[in-house]
Specification:
4% of the residues lie in helices and 47% in strands. With 213 residues, it is mostly beta strands. The protein has a seven-stranded mixed β-sheet, with no helix packed on it. It has a three-stranded antiparallel β-sheet with strand order 3-6-5, with no helix packed on it. It has a two-stranded antiparallel sheet with strand order 8-9. The longest helix has 8 residues. The chain has a single domain, classed as Immunoglobulin-like, CATH 2.60.40.1730. The protein is built from one helix and twelve strands. It is globular.
Length: 213
């Protein structure tokens, strides 16, 4: 026989829209300026638990007049931002967001590119690093992303929100004995003279930051 139980607390939660009393308001970002392509160029070192390089981001003005955009970027070191085309961009970084400002407003459907150069060292989340140790001599050698749901910001700059999606390119460098995998298809892989190799992966479909790997 099936029995049904009445729970006043659950009923009150349902009645008020499933929202807990201490829940914070959470809205999709305003995208007058929207990232549409992300090119990640990083050297990854599992032994040093670090990644260093730059990220080129193509941005599109969805409306005329946009001049500002905030990118999520947690605890980046040695951070610089540069425009890859003529309009000047300045920035301010507070350790969690990069605030971008263009002196010349975007026109509707205009595209511009920026380069964010940076280093991440032992990020608290977003990338899992593993190497053998005395305590765990059989541990694998790897660096693996773990972005869901808003943790990609710990290793690459983005508007880290599920509805914001870009096409992707990766130029990832690591020791040549390691296997390098990323989203999309392997376009090229070359060995370098310093004992590393660089893999070029591409994804031509727009992807949210939490699925970047």
């Amino acid at each position: 026989m099936t029995r049904f139980f009445y729970d006043r607390n659950i009923f009150q939660t349902v009645k008020h829209g499933f929202t807990l009393p201490d829940a914070k308001e959470h809205y999709a970002p305003d995208l007058e300026i929207e990232p549409i392509h992300t090119r990640i160029n990083l050297s990854v070192d599992p032994w040093q638990k670090s990644a260093a390089g730059f990220c080129d981001i193509t941005l599109r003005g969805n409306v005329a007049g946009g001049q500002t955009l905030a990118l999520d970027a947690m605890n980046f070191e040695n951070l610089t931002v540069a425009a890859l085309d003529s309009p000047v961009v300045t920035h301010r970084y507070d350790g969690s967001k990069i605030y971008l400002f263009w002196t010349k407003p975007f026109a509707a459907d205009e595209c511009r590119q920026i380069r964010v150069s940076y280093t991440v060292i032992e990020p608290v989340t977003g990338i899992v690093f593993s190497t053998p140790t005395d305590a765990q001599p059989e541990a694998p050698i790897l660096a693996a992303s773990d972005n869901e749901s808003e943790r990609g910001r710990y290793w690459f700059p983005s508007v880290d929100f599920m509805t914001v999606r870009t096409t992707l390119e990766f130029f990832l460098t690591a020791r040549k004995e390691l296997t390098i995998l990323a989203n999309g298809f392997l376009a090229d892989e070359v060995e370098n003279t310093d004992g590393t190799k660089t893999a070029h992966w591409k994804l031509d479909y727009r992807c949210p930051s939490y699925l970047v790997c």
